[in-house]
Structures are given as C-alpha cells and as structure tokens.
Amino acid sequence: MKAAITPEGIICEALRCKNALYEGAFPLHVFPTQLANIVRATNECLNFPVDYTASSLCFTISVCAGNLFAAKVKEGWIEHPILYVALIGRPGTNKKPSSELCLAAIIQLRQSDGCITQN
C-alpha cells in the first residue's frame, strides 16, 4: 500500500530536494554583489528566507526584461526571459512579504501610470 500524498509531505520532499541540491544554501554567488547584499540584508533584518527573496528577485528581473530581450538559441528558435515562480513553504514563512518587497517598485510605477488601481 502506498503512502498518501499530503501537502505536508510535498513540502518536506521539496525542502529535502533543495537541501540535497544546494547543500542547504541558495547560490547567491550567481547574483551581482549589490543584489546579493539586498538578499542577505532582508534575511538578517527582516528574517526573510534567502531562497524566497532570491527567487522573487529573479522573477522581478524577468518581469522587467519582458519581451525587450531575447536569446537566439539557433536559427528559428528565440527565447524570452520569462520565469514562472511558485514559492512553496509552511504558513508564516514570509513567502508573500519577500515577493511583495521585490515587486514593490514595479507596482508603484504601474500605479503612478494609472495602470493599476489600489484595492
């Protein structure tokens, strides 16, 4: 008989895979120094998990890039920097605040343009 699949089990397995892949640490060395410092500062000052903030930052960068940039992989194959992100974790682990922080500047600009109305 197979064990039942539960949300708790999925989260535990995702965390186990992340820890096995990165040995417990998000690879901040891939970011420019200033962005890595922002991620570290939000972790130290606001207790935001490094992986949530760094993932949200990657998503924000892809939103900013939009369709302005593209990579020509080969003739007839063009890829745009589109990134989909799902932050998975237990309740109260600062998933939403870390993504809101990264997207705040874009949201503020869009509100000043009148493209987004505040609820």
Largest β-sheet summary: 2 strands, antiparallel
> What portion of residues is helical?
40-55%
Q: Please identify the structural class as seen in this structure.
A: mainly alpha
Supply the number of helical segments. Answer: 4
Can you list the strand order of the major beta sheet?
Answer: 1-2
Radius of gyration: 17 Å
Distance between the termini: 49 Å
Uncertain residue ranges: none
How many domains, as an integer?
1
Total strands: 2
Order of helices and strands: HHHEEH
Q: Indicate the proportion of strand residues.
A: 5-15%
Shape: globular
Assembly of the depicted chains: single chain
> What is the mean predicted local confidence, pLDDT?
85
Which helices and strands, and how do they pair?
Blueprint: H1 7-22, H2 33-46, H3 50-65, E1 71-74, E2 77-79, H4 95-113
Antiparallel strand pairs: 1-2
